[in-house]
Amino acid sequence: MTLHLETEAEEGLLLYEKDGEIHKKPMEPAKGGLRVRVPVHVSPFRYCFLLPEGFLGSHGLEKTLPRYDRFFHLLAGSLPPWWALGTVYYQIFPDRFRQGRKELAPKDGEWLLMGRPIRKKAWNEPPGPEGAWEFYGGDLWGILEALPYLEALGVEALYLTPIFQSPSSHRYDTEDYLQVDPHLGGEGALEALFQALEKRGMRLVLDGVFNHVGATHPWFQRALKDPESPERSMFTFYPDGSYATFWGVKSMPKLDYASPLTQERFVHGPRAPIRYWMRLAHGFRLDVAHSIGEGGTNRKNARWLRALARAAKEERPEAVVFGELSYDAIPTLRAHTLDGAMHYAGFAHPVMEWLSGRDVHGRPVHLDAQETWRVLWDHYQALPVQLRHSMYTLISSHDIPRALWRLKGDVERFKLAYALLFAFPGSPAIYYGDEVGLSQPNPYAKWQGDPYCRAPFPWEESAWNLEVLTLIRRLVKLKRTHPALRLGGLLPLDAGKGVLAFKRRYQDQEIWAFFAPEGAKLTLPPGIDLIAEKEVAGEVEATFLLFQPV
Q1: Which of 314, 317, 341 is CA-nearest to residue 330?
Q2: Which residue of 78, 365, 496, 530 could cross-link 546, Cys pair, CB 3.0 to 4.6 Å?
Q3: Could you tell me which residue ranges the Glycosyl hydrolase family 13 catalytic domain spans (predicted)?
Q4: pLDDT 10s digits, 128-184
C-alpha cells in the first residue's frame, strides 16, 4: 500500500506493528505532504506516523507512542463491495409499509402468540403497546408496488426487517428460515421484488436473525422435549431447565455456535439461510451481531461473524454483510469480520443527544456542537479506513424512537439532522416514513421506540410534510452525484461556538458542511449553496448549509 499523509512536515516515519515489534520506515516528500510504500503483511494492519511534533494516530497528535487501539487500522483482502460505499438505504418494516394484496393479511385472532390471539388492525390505527401481536397486513407485493415512489426518492438499496415465517408481526422469532412468510406473499413475492429491483439497478438487503430462533421453531421444540435429540446441542440449557435467550426473552432461544449442527445449519451447509437466500438478495444485516457466539454467550463472536460474512460472499461475491453492533463497533470491525455496522455509537446516538437533549433511553444529556463533533471524529478516525463509507448511518430505526418524535416535532431540527446524516461519511439510511414526517403516537413523557416507532406508512399524500420530502430528495441527489459526499474524506472545520462543521474532500473537490440548531452567521468565500442551488458569498445566516467553494 502507498500511504499519503497531508502535512506541512518535511520529514517523518511510518511506524507499524509486525510480529510484535514496531517497525519504522522513512517517508519521502510528496505533493502536499509525505508518502511511504509498505507491504501489508497482516490484516488488520496497524500503523501510526512519527512527525517532528509527535506521534499521529487515530486520536490525533500524542507526545508518546499511542496504544495499539489508537493506531490507524487498515484491512486487506475481502472488503465491502463498491456499490455499498456511500449507498442510500431505505429501511422497511414489511408489515407496516404497504399492503399489496388484502387477502394475504392475517385475520383477527387467526392464531395465538404466546397464548394470546393476534390482532388485525386498520391501516390508519396507531400502533399500541402490544406490537408483536398487532398486524396491519403490509406485504412484499406492496413494496413492489411502491418501487416507483422509492426510485423517485433516489433510494439505491432496500433493507427489510425479517421476512421469514414467524408468528409475530416483527418476525424476529423465526419458525422457518427457508420459507418467506406466506402473509408477506411467500417466495414468489420475494422473487418478483428482487427481479424488479435488479432491473432498476437497486439492491436488496435482508435481515439475518442468526443469534436466536423462535421458540416455536421445530428445532427448538425437539431440543426442548427430547434431551437426547441432536438439536439439543444447538441451544444452551442450564441445570435448572432454563435456557439461554436473547435478552431474557423466552420466545427467542439463543443458538450455540459451538455445536457442529448449528454450524452446518447456519454457516456451512448449502441450506444455511445466509447462503440459500443469496440467490434472491444482495446481502444481509445481522441482527444483534454483537451477541452471536458460543455457550449462551458471545464467545468467539468475531470468528462466527467472519464465517457468516464469508458464507454469503462465497454464494454472491459482491454481497454486503453488516451488523447490528449497537455499542462500540470498532473492535469488531477491526477484527476483519463484517463490511460495516449500524452506526449507533459513532453517529446516531451523539447526534440525537445533541439535537434533542436526551439519550436514546430518554435520560437528559447536554452536548454542545464541539463535544458532539469530538465523538463523531473519534469514531470516524478509529474505524478501519476501508469501512468508513460502508457504515449503515442512521438517525431513526425500528428499534429506537423516531427522530422527529425525539425532537418534539421540531421540523427544522429534523431537517438539520437529515442534512447532517447525508453530509457525513457513510451509507445514509432513511427509515420508512421519515421522509414524509412520520412520527409516533405515544406522548413524549412515555419514552419508548418499539413498538410505537413502527406505525404504518401514511399513503395519503395530504398527510405528508412535503417540505421534508423535498429536502430529503435533494439530499439523496447530492449524495449520489457529488463524489466528495459519497467517497470523500472527513476533515475538521472551525466555524465558531455552537456550530458543528466539517469538510468533505475527494481529490480536488471540497464541500463544507455547517450545522447550528440555534442559527449562525457564517463568513464564506464565493461558492454554491448546494441545497438551495444558488450562489452565495460573504456573510450568510443558516441553521444548516452544504457549501461548495468555487
Answers
A1: 341
A2: 530
A3: 91-479
A4: 999 999 999 999 999 999 999 999 999 999 999 999 999 999 999 999 999 999 999
The strand ranges marked E within 52-194 are 54-57, 60-62, 72-74, 89-92, 112-113, 116-117, 119-120, 134-135, 157-160, 164-165, 176-180
Residues 304, 274 contacting (CB under 8 angstroms): no
Query: What are the catalytic residues?
Result: 287, 324
Provide CB contacts within 8 A for 232, sequence distance 6+. Answer: 222, 223, 226
Distance CA 339, CA 527 (A): 36
Q: Taking the CB of residue 208, how many other CB atoms lie within 10 A of it?
A: 27
Picking from 456, 467, 461, 523, the residue whose alpha carbon sits closest to that of residue 123 is: 456
Tell me which residue has cell 464541500.
511
Between the two ends of the chain, the Cα-to-Cα distance in Å is 33
Residues in the chain: 550
Residue 375, Cβ neighbours under 10 Å: how many?
18
**Exposure of 432 in the CB half-sphere (CA atoms within 13 A):** 28
